[in-house]
# Entry
Amino acid sequence: MLERPTALAGQPDTFEPTTYRDPDLVAGLKDRIAEVARQIGRPVKLMHICGTHEHEIGRFALRDLLPESVTVLAGPGCPVCVCDNEYINMAIRLSLEPDVILASFGDMLAVPGSIPLEGERRGDVRMSLLDARARGGDVRAVYSVFDAAHLAEQNPDKQVVFFSVGFETTVVAVAAMLKRGAPDNLSVIEANYYTPPASKLLPTLEGFDIEGFILPGHAVTITGLRVYEPLAEQGLACAAGGFEPVDVMASVVSLLEQIRDQRFAVENPYKRLVKYDGNEKAKRETDEVFELSPIRWRGIGEIPASGYKLRPEYQRYSAARRFAGRLDPIDLQGAEHPKGCRCAEVTLGQIRPDDCGVFGKLCTPDSPYGPCMVSHEGTCRAWYVYGMHKERLHVEPA
Amino acid sequence: MCLGIPHEVVEVIDEDRCLIRLGEAKQHCFIGLVEDLKPGDWVVVHAGFAIDKIPAAEAAANLKLIAEYLEPVEPEPRA
Amino acid sequence: MSNPPDAQAAGGRSKATSRYATVRLAHGSGGRLSLELIEELFVATFGNEPLRELSDAAVVANPGGRLAFCTDSHTVTPTFFPGGDIGRLAVAGTVNDLAVMGAKPMYLTAAFLLEEGYDMDELERVVRSMKATADEAGVAIVAGDTKVLERGKGDGLFVNTAGVGFLPDERRMGMDLVQPGDQVLVNGTLGDHGIAVMSRREGLDLAVELTSDVAPLNGLIERVLEVAPNVRFMRDVTRGGLAAVANEVVLRRPFGLRVYDVAVPVHDLVEQYSEMLGIDPLLAANEGKVMMIVPPDETEAALGAMKAHPLGREAAVIGDIVKKPEGVALVETAYGSRRVLEMPIEEQLPRIC
# Structure
């Protein structure tokens, strides 16, 4: 680069969000990545662990900008995809209770659990919340946990059950709300998952050949970067990744330089937001309300200390406890993904979506087989929608 | 997992709530987890709440880092 | 965005609607109440000769050329939204379906399915809005029908509009005329209607409200065809947004359609709200936009004609037809990278995170 891009020339004390979309900066980082990749001189595999990263990579086709030798894989980053059947089934059953309003993020509505859908032609169809709604269940899509609390206030004669899905970023709001006093008629299905244990599981899997991790920028805003030090200690490069194109490219630069120099740390190219120890207040409040306990990751199995459970002082808000009498234990068992669905392997980054036999054939966003194709955070859906399984799009104008 | 968008703080209502702005789009936001906010500060908002703020010094540091990445690469890798 | 004429400008209630506060079964059964409703609300508002005849069918003059016909049923929640209502949507929608074929829309029918108990004032507002939109488009609503469904058997109000237009013999448009090198144009900002409705529905506590772009486009389209008679193909951009139309055009064809991200006009506010909702403006609904595929040598003229028209001030060339990849609609980003612009899948729901 001969000239300093104008995007960098602004006043140092004003923040301009569009800077991180600037094409000149992206072009410069693209060149930098190519140069460092050349210095490394061999193929390198990196992984991110955030559905939003995969979504943004697809949206801006960022893989197009990387040299052939650098691959970015999608790892376990989709809370919808790892949410065990048990919680979906619980949400479905409760939504069908006459006194219950089930409030859920929009993404979860179409994900099938493991309750068979009676009366359908295909015997292996499982119920989702949308099916429950079609059968009279009061299912409402909400944008945040605060909306669910609002619903509870507006409907004092109903029970409002909030289907709390998401990772460590999202659970923070639930803790904050409960700590400040939630309506008595509100309860929560505890389906929040904590990702660091899953990412620490990855290097133990057979065939693991990832050399660096792009860390989820907003999750680490809450938890801080310290929790990922064990990965760096194992010789894996780590870098906090924001979600704008400049941020994603910058995190790749950081990882490649670490790999080139064989010096590994948890670096912070997203320093405008991420602090090494994260958001102390958010961590404190979450810790007051929730404790970490083992939880089943759909299709993967139980991982210790990776699920958020309400502490005894807040157990009265647990939907599992409040409605224990109305839930059938059969529904609360885990279940495998449908036959032929390789969502678990896709989630762990062991295969590409198009390695799965049903991808794009039996399994499309119109008629999804497994959660990876349903969720906006799902790797399979992102690949399908943005055409990432197709060869790089070569355009012949006319 | 993490759709979060930077917004500017317009008005701090109390320690838990404020009015935020993105261009002309305004809405309310829960800020109970971020301390010492004042109008003009930037916060990143996820699912209805601010996860943290973008301090001016850190914003400048971030830009500086990007600028460093755009400097020509040294010909020899560092030892 | 268009400014619909004030549906209440005529002032006061019609005689039929001042007598009854809500719709009754008898209003649809063909007897005295039916006739009163038809005469005092529909005929009085739509006011044209064929309609006044109250015969079984409207007989209208035929200016020659081929006929273009279309029909559409509408159920919109909410009935009234910023920038429009179901009536305006119905009339503009049918007018636009005809206009994008290159036809001059002339006559519409309007059929109403009302649920017993439907509010009369609301019905009157819808009907007046239809008249105002019809006047804007220069069309007449010449025939209609009214049925009333028992309470609980309907969903308030359904409107069906059918339309007929006349296509001059020399006009020839079609997807089969599209070729690599052709330019893709739109008459203005995308995503307005969809994001407006969605942001209202999601109850986002927004200080500034977005308005729908619902509008009849026949006037604008005529201006374009006057100076660019060889427009290959047009389609109105409605549900599914530009993505749906782009995919319809390339499906099974020996060419592709490339959209340049940076060239697509989107209102700043729509951009911001769509970020918040996690919805792509290219997939969001429109109700006053048309996509045109124009040969390169007529592009400048077509663009100029649109920009000179009130409904085309922000018209833009947003892409082109390419030889390869065949059958694919794609987006070229600001970074030169490319992604597929896939056919929208389902109702756009706000994302979790």
User: Anything to note?
Assistant: The longest strand of chain B covers residues 5-12. The two ends of chain B are 37 Å apart (CA to CA). The helical segments of chain B are 56-70. Chain B touches chain A through 38 residues (CB under 8 Å).
